Amino acid sequence: MDQFQSFCDQLNRRQFIKRASVGLGVAAIGGSMTPLVATAQPGLHHTAKAKRVIFLFMAGAPSQLDLFDYKPGLEKLHGQSLPPEISRGQRVTTMTRGKKQEICASIFKFAPQGESGLVMSELLPHLSKHADDICMIKSTHTEAINHDPAKTFFCTGSEMPGRASMGSWLSYGLGTLNRDLPDFVVLSSAFWSGKTNVQALYSRLWGTGFLPGKHQGIAFQSVGDPVLFLSNPKGVDRKARNKMLDFVSKVNAEQQLVTGDPEIQTSIAQQEMAFRMQASVPELTDLNQESEETLGMYGPEVHQSGSFARNCLLARRMAERDVRFIQLFHRGWDHHRQLPLHLRGQARDIDQPISGLLTDLKQRGLLKDTLVVFAGEFGRTTFAQNLTPGDRGNYGRDHHPRCFTTWMAGGGIKGGISYGQTDDFCYNVVKNPVHVRDLHATMFHQLGIDHNKLVFPHQGLDQKLTGVEEARVVNDILA
Amino acid sequence: MLKKFIYIYLLSNAISLSFAGKSINFNRDIRPILSNKCFHCHGPDQEDRKEELRLDIAEGKLGALTPRDGYHIVKPGKPEESELWFRITSEYEDEFMPPADSHKAPLTEDEIDRITQWIKEGGEYQDFWAFVPPQRYIPESEDKSYDNTIDQIVNASLRTKGLRLNEEADRRTLIRRLSFDLTGLPPTVSEIREFLDDRGSNAYENLVERLLNSSAYGEHMTRYWADLVRLADTNGMHHDFDRDFSTYRDWLIRSFNENLPFDDFIKYQLAGDVFNDPSLDQLVASGFNRLHMIIDKGTALPEESLHKNVVDRVEAFGTTFLGLTVQCAQCHDHKYDPLTQKDYYQLYAFFNNFSGAPETGGEPERGLQPPFINLTTPKQEKQLADFDGRLQALEFELGAIVRRQGLSDKWPKDFSKVAVPWIWHEASRPSPSVDFRTILELSEKPEYAIARFVGLPKAVGAKRGAFQGNLRQSKDGAATEANDVKNTEETIAHIPKTEVFVNGVSLGNALTLKDGVAAELSDLLISGENLITAKTTEKSGFAFILEYGTGVDTQFFTTSPDWKVSIDEGSSWVAATEVHNPKHESEWTNRVRSKEVLEAQKRIADLKAKRTAFYHTIPGAMIMSEMTPPRQATMFIGGAYDAPDVPVERNTPAFLPPMKKKKEMYTRMDLAEWLVAPNHPLTSRVAVNRFWQQIFGVGLVRTSEDLGAQGEWPSHPELLDELAVTFMETGWDVKKLFRSILLSRTYKQSSDADPKAYKKDPENRQLARASRYRLDAEVIRDQILAVSGQLNNTMYGKSVRPPQPPGLWEMVNMVANRPYVPDSDDNIYRRSLYTFWRRAIPPPQMTIMNAPSREFCLPRRERTNTSLQALLMMNEEEYFKAAKTCAKQTLEETDGLESRLRLTYEKITSHLPAKDRLELMKKTFVEFSEIYQNDAALTRALTPELDGTDFSKRVELAAWTMMTHSLLNLELAKVRR
């Protein structure tokens, strides 16, 4: 059989295969190991709607039942046991395992807000004014039932430590927009109102995992230098530092000629960058240029270093300077007992600052290409925990991963809509479930990234933020 | 017809290409492509397998070479008749492989060429190289130019590329390189000079020997192992409590220094506890199985925690010893290696039988979670026995006092824990007396009962004085004790009379009537309601405590606001007011006991505290231990802890050599023996590869964490095999292995090369020069401490806490009160190996320089070059302080600008500056001097310790500090070359 005939035979055998047009461009970028550096550009895989993200992470898990997901029907059922056909014997934490699941309606009032009529709790009077900017996702869900794995999952796409965090992925995938500042900054509140059961943070939440270390999140400090080791030691000023760098660069450059190692050039460049950061970071954190009016929008705590309000303002300043991923952590949301008391304080901590941030971004034209995301690691149970009998205003709620509310604003997301639905008990998702990995995929999508294509080879796999399970972009919420 | 021609053209064009160079080696050239692009759906995992096809095997029903119905996947010699070839080159999306929905990139032209040529050459499959035992090197032709086999292999490989070994490095570079590679410390100036002066032919060998035998060698080796096995000082989850593995770390250091054969090193760690009558070392080493992250009790479900711990142990076993990503088979068959999910759970079964709890308690004492052992020395044992003897004597003494005073044996067992509120009646008018009353309801008559009471004169808080009525000594129901008054800081001006009645009987009377013990008070109490009243002779505060019980169950009844109070006899009873004054309450608590008893108790408490403090200095070690009967292992569906599947028994993966058959259940010792058996293809290769990586910066297999199908092909397979075989044959002798590498010409090469050579081979895989890489975080810090003369060489012991920037722990703490408190003594200058490693937030001086969090096993660190590293080197307080300390010493050690510059340069770089560099340094030094001369404030800020001294001295120190600091920031200081 000659070659031609053999070829024709193979063609014949495949005649059932539908002929399709040539489409080999599909995964052209996907497997690339080189960091895909991009300056202002239409997007890595498609046109980007957002250039940067401000991620407001409420560590400890705020109660969706008392803030966002209004369930008026629970009032009638208050005090009754959660029907087993609803809970379906699903696992709970050791704290409530084997205990009675007594339904507990929120004591807080809810009302429709804005033109959209998005319903919000009375605890968020300032945020309520932004109802029309916000897309509330009431059907967010995850697997982990404990803080540690749930937070690790939300921040890195895996419950097990060792994966790259969201911001690291963006830094890796999209490259840097501002050469004088880090791509990924973490701002953690130094204090908060809910003085109960405060959950730990871990540096892995902004870690780089298997990605190159330069994509690591830089945690800004609320005491001392905002960036570790930023300030010159006592007795060293700009001119002494300059002289030192002159000498070091000169010797290093000579050394490169001798040894031939191009890596020395990188060292020289990084020392120069360090020198520039010594100027750019203080400029970034210096709030003297902010008007009284602007400061006022963020509420009184903006004047306190380490406050969530201050961090919101810093986030706006970073967004202006094109930091790619700005992640705020606010702790104190783990309200197993005395939820109304602690939630009031927590809501006060964040309400005006977030409202101020959204207003400020909008006024400066930044909201349209800045994606603001609000989320805790999971939700809280519809049934009460640590009830004081007879005291309606004193209850707690346990961890609940099966449904919780997150929201997004700006960055090409539809405002004033509520997406997904939970059952009347706020226990299970009944419509349009959004897994945390779907949220990841959607965030990436807005930034011009196809979550399936931004990969990094590690342990023999093409690793991606959304992991091996299928993740989907929530197209319905895109503007 | 035209279309056909185009196809033919494409076809012949493609096939005419041939893979440049020598013939195809399946393992090197083909398997990585298939593994990366095809195995996901056509590989070992049956779950995701498509089309009944496995491209990882040749034979069998699913094999790639097995003819299919009318066609071939791979037809040897005929790419164009091979479906594989057709699919990877197809122009049609629907038949193109890998398919679009796999999100895998198409094969590159080079990859297609290789596969084409491979099929042309016969499509031969090979067993995966790392799964067949390593073979000794047999040279193709005799190489007389080098004695050392390493050099022969490297040279042969270089020759094929038209390269040869680089020239030998100079002696200063060699001693610096050797010192860093073997000890992690720079050579001292005198060590350098000694080596330069040693003109003997064995100078180099002797140097290697000296360094191999220095105690710093073991410390340095341990640091790499610490990354590999995730050695840290905290749990890593939830509260992140302390978890003390310092004893295990010290065992590692000693093992490396004593050159414990590596097979024993493995056996001790994996199965130390399973030895017959294990030694302390073996037990300590078994702590390897306890290094995983662990959560503390509270939120997670224990069965979930148990599962996670076991999974973590299995991963550590796989990464550390097999160099495979076994954890991938937790949820499904491995995608790339022939490791089934069942294989995984058979390994899991070796590690799930831990006898301890899956979670730690809250804040485990000494950071030790059971089971653990105490490594008490005979002397310490004697000291402990001494403590216990003294405690026993004190307890006896206390008992004697109690008996002498006629108190119950139980008295005052729990008194200190009982808060006794004062009660009061705040009346506006003066009153001659106040009465108190209450009802005590008892369900049964108590076996014993003791009561005490006290009155407080005048307004509460006005006087700290109080007096005490001791029942036995009361004659009139209001007596005081002389010693009690003395004990009062302020004299009691007036003592109100207070008399207490139980069921109408005055306690004083009660006791004088019975001349027995206080317990006889129980005779006054009845089952049911008991009336207790108190009479004071004037307006008075009052506190009362009654201890009663059955001997096993002690209860306390005290004054409280539930008591009723009445002013004047006959007036109405109202609720008493509780006086919230903790000071008075604690005073009562103290006063309620006799002074003698109190003192005896204090002696006991003090001694107990001393014993505890002493006990805490005794090192403990968490160990592995098995449960009997063993816990049945099962598979878990999808790897989920709450989805157990069929039971499995302990065994090793089927694709590796089998374990010796055994009737009873395999033990971890069997597993360890299996690992170090001479026919095991992986253990030795994995170990040798990591040691090589440690020296050369990159392993012979770059992916030292994965020698499986997705790992990389070795740069020098023959060398890896040769070293692996030799390592086993020499009895797993680590120092011998190092010696053979360090004495090779390959090692001694210079790292200087043409920039083009660096560009072509940035990681130095070809070994045509020495490797050049940035020193690790620990080495950088240790070097700074060493050259400044501050390094504290103390070995072993609990982890230490050098200063770090404020607020870091607070940023992540779960509980607020866990600040980082740096040590204040010279522990802050210990080697970085001893630095406390908190998994939630490891020391930034380390992590900024790519040290891992130690949350998971890490066989190789990344090396980046970032601006944060530049900031760390420029501004870290201790680093800068070290520059000043170094400068001060240099100023003392020698005189004259040039001589001082030379010495500083030599200390920091191990080299002497060439003439023009010296000139540059001189010029820079002068410029620094000018800056400080002209800025008094800056100079004062840099040299506060010289307050009051001559300004020129201060300028001198400032300029020298900056000069030293500048040199410490040079590439020459930071880089191993």
Note down, in words, how this protein is organized:
- The complex is a heterodimer of chains A (479) and B (977).
- Chain A is α/β, with parallel strands linked by helices.
- Chain A has a single domain, classed as Alkaline Phosphatase, subunit A (3-Layer(aba) Sandwich).
- Chain A is built from 13 helices and 17 strands.
- Chain A has helices spanning 3-13, 64-67, 74-77, 84-87, 125-128, 147-156, 166-174, 238-259, 263-285, 292-297, 308-320, 339-363, 436-446, and strands at 52-58, 110-113, 118-121, 134-141, 184-188, 218-220, 325-330, 370-376, 379-385, 396-400, 404-409, 417-419, 421-422, 429-431, 434-435, 456-458, 461-463.
- In chain A, the strands form 5 sheets. In chain A, strands 1, 4, 5, 6, 7, 8, 11, 12 and 15 form a 9-stranded mixed sheet that branches. A two-stranded antiparallel ribbon of chain A has the order 2-3.
- In chain A, a hairpin with a 6-residue loop joins strand 13 (421-422) and strand 14.
- In chain A, helix 8 runs antiparallel to helix 9 (263-285) and helix 11 packs parallel to helix 12 (339-363).
- The longest helix of chain A is centred in the C-terminal third of the chain and has 25 residues, at 339-363.
- By secondary structure, chain B is α+β, with helices and mostly antiparallel strands.
- Among the domains of chain B are: 2-126, no CATH class; 406-593, Jelly Rolls; 877-976.
- Chain B has 36 helices and 18 strands.
- Chain B has a 6-stranded antiparallel sheet with strand order 7-6-8-3-11-12.
- The longest helix of chain B is centred in the middle third of the chain and has 27 residues, at 378-404.
- Classes of the chains: A alpha/beta (479), B alpha+beta (977).
